[in-house]
Amino acid sequence: MNTARPLLIAVSGPDGAGRSALVRRVAGLLRQRGVAVTTLHGHGRFPGRGFGSPPRVRDEEETVRRPDGPPHRGLWARRAHALLDAGDLSVRTRAVRRALATRSRARAVRRALATRSRGGPAVVLTDGGPLDGLVAFGFTPGHRASDRFARLVRRYDLTLLVETGPAPSLYRAWASRLPRVVRLDGERAPSRVAAEVVERVLDSVRTRRLPEPEEGMRAARRKRVVVSLYDETGEFDHRDGGATVVEKVSRRLSDEFDVTVVTAGRHGASLRRDGIRYVYLPVRWAGQRTGRLLFLTLLPFVARRLPHDAWLENFTPPFSTSFLPLFSRTPVVGIDQGRSAEALWRRYHVPFFLVERLGLRCYRHIVVLNEADASVVRRLSPRADVQVIANGVEQRQIDEAGIGAGQHILFLGRIDIWVKGLDLLLEAYSLSRPPLPLVLAGSGTQGEERKLAALLAAHPGSVRWVGFAGEELKRDLLRNSAFLVMPSRRESFGLVALEGMSYGKPVVHFDLPALRWMRDGGDVAVPPFDIVALGDRMRMLATDERARRALGRQAGQAAQHYTWDEMTGRYLALTRRLADDSARGRRPRKDRRAGAWPTSR
Question: What is the pLDDT of residue 81?
Answer without folding.
Answer: 60
